[in-house]
Write a structure and sequence with these properties.
Radius of gyration: 22 Å
Order of helices and strands: HHHHHEHHEEEHHEEEEEEEEH
Oligomer: single chain
Structural class: alpha+beta
Number of strands: 12
Distance between the termini: 75 Å
Length: 305
């Protein structure tokens, strides 16, 4: 009798354990929603992943310097000072609020997860310039995709699949070797009114995601930027999810979102579908004044190498 009861108990436990992990696996396949699921890159120079505290402390010191030499600056940048005091620890930053950047969270911004620029919108002219020059971007992308330039691409760490990037601007630094072979693309990018290119939050890059790739849900380092994706090669089975809103890329069209909201990508297409390829450009949030832009550029300027 005792042996029979023991067998039943063990069998029930094992079945329950099997069902638990089965459901957990199904849940992960359906949607990735936890920040802990994100596999950050292992680059020791990455602002988002490893250097957030050092970057923030340096920004605080630079803000003090700015106020010391420009006494009137506090009047136009008071919310920057208030926002610097808000950030205290990485643990506090990673809570469940809708938008929760990892490094710098500027107060009192009007935030939208996904943007739809229209005539008169602050991004309308930049979007028009990007989309009207799509053929140049497509041409440069094909050129740098040749095998002889493979060494200039960087692989990002992902739970599944492969995600490769080719930077023209990497965390505020111009990548001269890459720009030298994409001069036309870089020339157009420099004409954008809202380009973020002088601080550690600004990037311009080509991004390629292969079939089977999962970029787990994560948040960007700041809410002051709007990330613009120009579709170069799109795949119906590749989906971007931002704060629960699912979007798809279109060839030659811009997709804009605030990456301080939780977001992730899943490429569930087949090998025949091929990769999803986009040009990524970081733009300033439209609610940030010229004086604030200049202050942030100084505070978060990349270290000289």
């Amino acid at each position: 009798m005792f042996e029979h009861l023991l067998i039943v108990t063990v069998t029930t436990f094992l079945c329950s354990l099997f069902i638990y992990y089965l459901l957990k696996g199904i849940s992960r396949d359906t949607e990735v929603t936890n920040d802990s699921d994100f596999s950050s890159c292992i680059n020791p120079n990455c602002v988002r992943c490893t250097l957030y505290r050092q970057v923030t402390e340096r920004a605080c010191e630079r803000y003090k310097q700015l106020c010391k030499f420009q006494t009137e600056i506090q009047r136009s940048t008071h919310r920057i000072e208030e926002s610097l005091h808000v950030q205290k620890s990485h643990g506090e930053i990673l809570n469940n609020s809708a938008t929760n950047p990892l490094v710098f969270n500027l107060k009192d911004l009007k935030l939208e997860a996904v943007y739809s620029p229209h005539s008169g919108h602050p991004f309308a002219e930049d979007v028009r310039l990007i989309e009207s020059n799509k053929e140049i971007f497509f041409s440069d992308f094909l050129f740098v995709s040749k095998p002889k330039y493979e060494h200039l691409w960087t692989k990002n760490n992902t739970p599944n699949g492969q995600w490769r990037v080719f930077h023209l601007i990497n965390q505020g630094r111009v990548v001269q070797n890459n720009v030298a072979i994409c001069e036309k693309t870089f020339g157009i990018i420099r004409k954008l009114q809202n380009i973020m290119n002088r601080n550690v939050f600004g990037n311009v890059l080509f991004s390629v995601i292969q079939p089977g790739t999962i970029i787990s849900t994560h948040r960007g380092p700041t809410n002051i930027r709007i990330r613009c994706h120009l579709g170069i090669k799109t795949v119906d089975e590749c989906i971007l999810t931002v704060s629960g809103t699912r979007s798809q890329w279109q060839v030659g069209k811009c997709l804009l979102f605030n990456d301080s909201f939780a977001h992730g990508v899943r490429h569930q297409g087949s090998e025949e579908d091929g990769p999803r390829c986009v040009l990524i450009v970081d733009l300033w949030h439209p609610d940030i004044s010229p004086q604030e832009r200049n202050a942030i550029d100084f505070m978060f300027s990349p270290d000289k190498k």
